[in-house]
Amino acid sequence: MTRIAFFGHDAADAAVRRRVRGFLDDGLQVTGFMMRRRDPGTLECENVDLGETRDGAFVQRIRQVFAGARRAAADRAKLAAADVIYARNLDMLACAFLARRYAGLVTPVIYESLDVHRLLTRSDLIGKAMRRLEHSLLKRTVGLVVSSPGFIRNHFEKHYAGDYRAFLVENRLVPGASYGARPGVPGPGASGATKPLRLGWIGNLRCKRSFKLLCQLADQFPDQLEVRLHGVPSRTEITVFEPMIDSRANMTFFGRYRSPEDLAGIYGDLDVVWAGDFMEAGYNSVWLLPNRIYEGGYYCTPSIAPSGTETAAWLTQHDCGILVDEPLDQMLPQLIAGLVADRAPIAERAAALARAPDNAFVQPPGFLASIVTCCLSRSRTP
Predict the structure, then answer these.
(1) Residues whose CB is less than 8 angstroms from the CB of residue 135 and which lie 6 or more positions away in sequence, other chains included
(2) Which domain holds residue 249?
């Protein structure tokens, strides 16, 4: 059985836990070496706690990289038992290489770039220094995992061409969990507009512009639209959150949710999902593919996405989403007004989602294990 030392930035993060669950479902043995930003509760694997970090506290996170590396190396027996180190995000990649050096090991390392941080896109000395660091570590890895082809085209190929071997692992649902049956193709009456349109924003609620747009929509359609938010708001990006929702009768924040247990209920109560992101506009926000398009796709709930993004391209490829052009403060209300009056476009895309194969939204069993095996075979090549 292949053994993985998983270096994660937050043991409580849903995406981190989903990756761990994916490894375990594929028959791999996982030992976590993870930071935490809050109490992670019960974990799916044994974990070596590398200390606490704070959201947005960049200097503190740099210090914690070194402290965490020493904690990991202090548990050398567990680190040495791993066949491969899997590091998620650049700070954890640096932590993993430091821990490996402190422990005197030569274990191969796989780098997963969850997203391209805004510091890596800067054109000043800070941006150049960050890219130099990423390049120096990247070329020493045996594999690069990304969740969107946009990251390869716009960042890695642009700056580090020829110095990595990339694997695409989209943010699909992991195969081992129970998500319930997928809805069937909607019937002829599905386009009837008899109730308020239900628009959801699910996951990491970190985009200030998206939040403002949804609040404006709630104001413009007080009786015709319900806005439902599920997940964790970023307090550093959206400093005033609950008061903005509480002042609008047609906006509701449901808080954290469990995945997969709560997904069917969340998406089953929605007509459409908002899949826009502008936190790092022009860069990461344009290149990413968010979890919600796969979750919503599985439950046949179409997504709305800004045109010209990787998300829009994915929705177009699968013929299952609704695109909206800039300026969004004008075009998005027009779109919503049309959907309020006629749900037929939603029913058409929901039908397209229902006809799509499960593997468009759920990762095939053994997929992660095959990537790890491929990376390890490269590390053994003379």
Answers:
(1) 159, 160, 163
(2) 188-360
The strand pairing partners of 109, in sequence order, are: 85
H or E element: which one contains 209?
A: helix 208-220
81 within 8 A of 72, measured Cβ to Cβ: no
Can you tell me the distance from the alpha carbon of 311 to that of 339, in angstroms, rounded to the nearest whole number?
Answer: 20
Mean pLDDT of 83-107: 97
What is the pTM assigned to this prediction?
0.93
Q: Work out the number of other CB atoms within 10 angstroms of the CB of residue 165.
A: 12
Measured at the CA of 346, the angle between CA 336 and CA 291, to 5 degrees, comes to 90
Whether cis (ω within 30° of 0) applies to the bond prior to 186 is no
Instruction: Quickly tell me which residue has 């071997």 as its tokens.
Output: 165
Which pLDDT band, with edges at 50, 70 and 90, does 192 fall under? low
pLDDT at site 379: 65
Residue 41 has pLDDT above 50, yes or no: yes
Categorize the per-residue pLDDT at 28 as very low, low, confident or very high, splitting at 50, 70 and 90. Answer: very high
Nearest to 292 by CA among 311, 271, 308, 313: 311
Determine whether 8 is exposed, middle or buried from the number of CB atoms within 10 Å of its CB (0-12, 13-18, 19+): buried
In this structure, the answer to whether residues 207 and 327 fall within a common structural domain is: yes
110: which strand partners? Answer: 86, 143
3-class state of residue 17 by DSSP: helix
Rounded CA separation 105/335 (Å): 56
Residues 355 and 370 reside in one and the same domain: no
What single-letter amino acid sits at 207? C
Note whether residue 129 is domain-resident.
Answer: yes
In terms of C-beta density within 10 A (0-12 exposed, 13-18 middle, 19 or more buried), how is residue 303 classed?
Answer: buried
* Rounded CA separation 381/371 (Å): 16
**Residue 358, amino acid:** D
Is residue 30 helix, strand or coil?
strand
Query: Would 286 be classed as within a structural domain?
Result: yes
| Type of residue at 145 | V
Q: How many domains does the chain have?
A: 2
Question: Is residue 13 predicted with pLDDT exceeding 70?
Answer: yes
CB 328 within 8 A of CB 305: no
